Amino acid sequence: MLADTASTGVVALIPLLHTLNALSFPPLLALVAIAGALRGPGDAAKSTLIPDIAKAANVPLERVTGLESTTERLAGFIAFAIAGALITFVGEVNALWIDAASFGVCAVLIARWIPSQHQKAAEPDEGTYKHRLLEGWRFLRKDKLMMPLVMMIAVTNLLDAAVGAVLLPVWIKDHGLGPGHTSLILTSFGVTATLFALVASAVGDRIPRKLVFTLAFLICGAPRFVVMAFDAPVWAVMAVYAVGGIGAGFINPVLGALFIERIPRDMLGRVSSLADAACWTGVPLGGVVAGAAIAGIGLAPALLAAGVVYLVATMSPLLIGRHESWKATQDRTDPQGTAAGPDPVAVPTS
Q1: 10 Å Cβ neighbour count for 302?
Q2: Domain check: are 59 and 28 in the same one?
Q3: Is residue 334 part of a domain?
Q4: HEC letters along the chain
Q5: Does 116 share its domain with 238?
Q6: N or C: which end of the chain has fewer CB within 10 A?
Q7: How many domains does the structure of the chain reveal?
């Protein structure tokens, strides 16, 4: 609630300062940075609601994480269209006022509908921030499955950022195509990823996690890079991205449920936040690494190298994680949302 309320004020400052002719580029950057800083704790706090939602609705965790992933992908998919429509009909400044108000609406919805007993089950305020941070890190570091998964997601997030920010746009330009083709390719991925995240929410609790994890990353990872490296026609690239979205749709629901089950309830916030932070570390570097690779070895070799690294990274948890750890992930939560397997321990989403 605090994060969304603060975000309302920070985002509202952008159109306000613009209206007062007091908005230059440096303050705009600062406001965007503050808004990003508020997102971290806000998203982490909301993620801790998932076990309570599963328990209250009496449904498997995969159902909740699947619907959450569907909502997130759908929102990201339609965000640009909504932004464009708002700018067209009400103008840029009013669109930003509406954007700011949306955070306030979220704060009100959480205050109105989140059960009061969730606050009673929140993490106890024990020890200093440094002590709690180290405690969460030790837990994450010692887990034989979660830590390899976190490292893997950090690498794949970097490569996903690289292809979206640099590799795909450069490939489009080199082939004499335009931004519309970039949009079509990414849309083909987004549509199938959204649809199959919904499928995962329906069947996720009845499918083997290790198999789904392996196939999903094999489908959605390296093929996207390889098809461009071999100069396939744009329709083939669209097809590969569309098939890749099928795999991507299953990843977040399965990994999200896995992480939540394995993390003890009283450590969910700190461990999931640490995992998310680690998974995001490569994202700002994706475009820089891609640009340097193209400058150094050329576009096609850079795409092939990225595909190989993606494949190795996504297969590494199968080799590094102990067999017993993967076997334990097949245990499901009971109808009340409590872990039915061994001592709980979790994972951030890709």
Answers
A1: 24
A2: yes
A3: no
A4: CHHHHHHHHHHHHHHHHHHCCCCCHHHHHHHHHHHHHHHHHHHHHHHCCHHHHHHHHCCCHHHHHHHHHHHHHHHHHHHHHHHHHHHHHHCHHHHHHHHHHHHHHHHHHHHHHCCCHHHHCCCCCCCCHHHHHHHHHHHHHHCCCHHHHHHHHHHHHHHHHHHHHHHHHHHHHHCCCCHHHHHHHHHHHHHHHHHHHHHHHHHHHHCCHHHHHHHHHHHHCHHHHHHHHCCCCHHHHHHHHHHHHHHHHHHHHHHHHHHHHHCCHHHHHHHHHHHHHHHHCCHHHHHHHHHHHHHHHCHHHHHHHHHHHHHHHHHHHHHHCCHHHHHHCCCCCCCCCCCCCCCCCCCCCC
A5: no
A6: N
A7: 2
pLDDT tens digits along 29-52: 999 999 999 988 898 888 888 888
Tell me which residue range forms the domain holding 40: 2-120
Q: Is residue 71 part of a domain?
A: yes
How much is the CA Rg of the chain, to the nearest whole Å? 21
Is residue 270, in this structure, part of any structural domain at all? yes
The model's pTM: 0.77
Say if 185 falls within a structural domain.
Answer: yes
Residues 224 and 78 in one domain: no
- Where among 120, 155, 176 does a domain terminate? 120
Statement to judge: residues 140 and 232 lie in one domain: yes
